[in-house]
Amino acid sequence: MKSHFKLFIIISLCLCFIFSLISEGKADIFYDIYATPPTFNPNAMPMPETTTISAGLWADTSRTEALCWLKVYDINHALVNTLTYPVDSLTPNITAYKEYYVPWNGKNTSGITVSNGIYPYHIDAVSWVETFTTDYGTNYPYDVAAYIYYWAEADWTYEIALVSDTGKRIMLTGDCQGLGDGHWWNITPTGFTGPAYGITAASGNGKFYVLDSGSKKLFYITSDLLDVAMVTCGQMGTIINWASYSLWSGAITPSDLACSSDGTIFYAVDKGTNKVYKSIDSGANWNQCAAQPGLAASPSLTGVAVDPNNSNIVLVADGANGDIYKSDNGCAGFTRIYDGTAQQAYQVSFDNDGYFWLSNVANKRVSEVNPINTLEVLRIGTGAGDQRYKFNATDGAGTGIALGLFANYSPWLDNKYLYVADYYNKKVKKYVYDNYGSDPPVGTNIVVSASSDTTPPSAITDLSIEPEDPLGWWYVIGSDYVMLQWTSPGNDDNAPATRARAYDLRYSKNPITTGNFNSANRAIVEYTSHATNNTSGKTTFEVQENISQNTQSSGYISVIDYTDRSVQEYEYASWSGKIFYLDTGPPAVTLDRTYDGNDKVSLHFPYVQGNPYDGFQVTGLESNTIYYFAIKSSDEKNNTSGLSNTPVSGKTGLLLEWNMVSCPLDPIPNNSSLSVFGDDAGLDWMFKWISTWTGPTDTNCATACQTVGASCPHSPPPQCYCSPDCDGSWVQVSTIVPAEGILLYSTKNYDPTDATGADIIDFSSTVSLITGWNMVGNPYGANVSLINCNVYNPGAPEPKTRTYEQAVTAGWIENGVYIWNGITYIDYPWDSAELELWKGYWVKAYYNLDLIINKP
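Above: the chain's sequence. Below: its structure in token form.
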């Protein structure tokens, strides 16, 4: 999933369309963000064109909703239109993990069609993660700071949070892999008299710092961060080592604290003196800043923040007037950048993109502010409640107290988080969020003709299973995948100058036609993350490449020079999506690429491989199963080709270890060694189950197989009855019989099952079932539906032969069949179950019966 998605939608009537998509950083809120088509003409005749922006919300056990703003900007970052937004700051407008589709007709907020140009869009979003109670007594939280620590040696992630409260305590919470159940440890340092209105953490060294308003000291944790993390994980005691420095002379009410990423530069505000103070030696010595904000009232300073990317950029919150002041020179001068109009701003916190969060005591909310125009981007809260998106910063008398803030970027989890100390509700609430950055456009750029392109690529004619590697270094078939190959057609018909830009690959257990193509399963492709490079002494080139994982490819890529908008093509080569080489002439430029396994898009996402040969590994398939494949290609205008050559089919391999199989013909020879399944499994080890269970009243079985009854199996019959699951035995198979199921052990997964023999021509095949569990299979060359089968019961009154449905209703046979998938048994109801080729199934009979499998 990506954060900072910027897609450039080009609307052009005369020269060209340019489309660009970038991703910088990551956030796990949305995935598959793209526009279809990426270029469009809202003034096209006779029918104006539109584009549809797509995005999917990730599924998560604790996060299945989001406050979401979908906004379109111009190239200068001015807002053009907001396409989706929550009706208020409390009710998520994205409420389920699925894909969402939002059309844009190319108009601005006034309903006027925009001019030709580049239009980035972005999803600004905030999603609740968890809420944890700070205390079950009478203490209320003032401030919060958090740090996420990754211990590479143990591959563990520890999330640690510190909170100060009205009980004049410093509380620690956290857990392995997250904040857990909110268990708290009191780690208040010796000499701390409180209260602490300010807590912060340095991302570079992982240290926590506490501003003690009572003792006028700066306390900081000296314990190794891993030791602190282990405390939160319950793996050691609660001993945390502290040290302290004295604050500035004349301190009255130290109110908030912020530090640089490396923990060397500190800023603090004192509401009592209404001054800003600075330390350049990790808090050992303090000096009053020469310049101060132009405050209208005193006391009023309640919050301070420092940009994690530049310690000279400082924000100060004026709690009396709700204003924010900024210094770009290390507090040598301040300018008011945000007019809160007496909204009682309490705290402010920077994130790693230069955005800042502001807590508003009067309105009980927090807001994110864009650093470019100091306008609010996101707003959460507004209301005194205890829901996910509500805060309460007032005491029982309605007096404004505090909403502590801490914005944190985790390089280990690739997310931006916001922590809010919800004062009166005695909660700390955690969110993951995303916003639109201020950096210039970066990405892959496609230039096409402005003429109306209505010619699709030609249909692919050579889609096939890849040939097996003769050296056996890799396999084109596995238990859950099949590798395909094809020749990419031309962009327009089969013109060789340019290639198709996108593919839509489908697979199904049934032959695919034009009529059922859209209902077939769509393949998913994994692709590399994006990269940019600033070449020394040269123009910055902005590039992107999308290829399949482990696909070796070479070809050409288009690169835009953003200085003069020229477009050039360069030769490239790539291996496994790890390293990207861009040859711009001596010296060559190397871009390091990092593959992220969480980055996934649909195969129809536009990408260019350059080489006329393309291929793809379809994964997530069932073992020992025949699949059919088909593909359509499209160009940058979303002109789609016809269906590829069909039917193209392939069969997946066996599971390693145990499989349930059968043979859909009369094998010749029919022995179980290397003649039928042994060559595919690598081992002649096949078994069938012989049930000795006689029915629900059977008591004649071993004690270990007895069931039912409170004291069973110690009580004698009739309290104890036999279990059909264990009342029987395994017998090794030496002869393969059609329509009988077999349990097969396999030592390989790359050789699909096959056999030579004669097709079964009889209109029906009979399988004798004995009371208990039986293994059956499909003897024919096409799938058989159970709904079309019959059951014969010699001991029943007439009619002795009934439909499968009637046999289930009469209690002759179980109402479902079961198959092993390598992890567990999957059951299929009789009215939807099909006996597929080469697979074996469990069927439970309550009498000695004949299963009559009718030829499809």
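The first strand starts at residue 6 and ends at 11.
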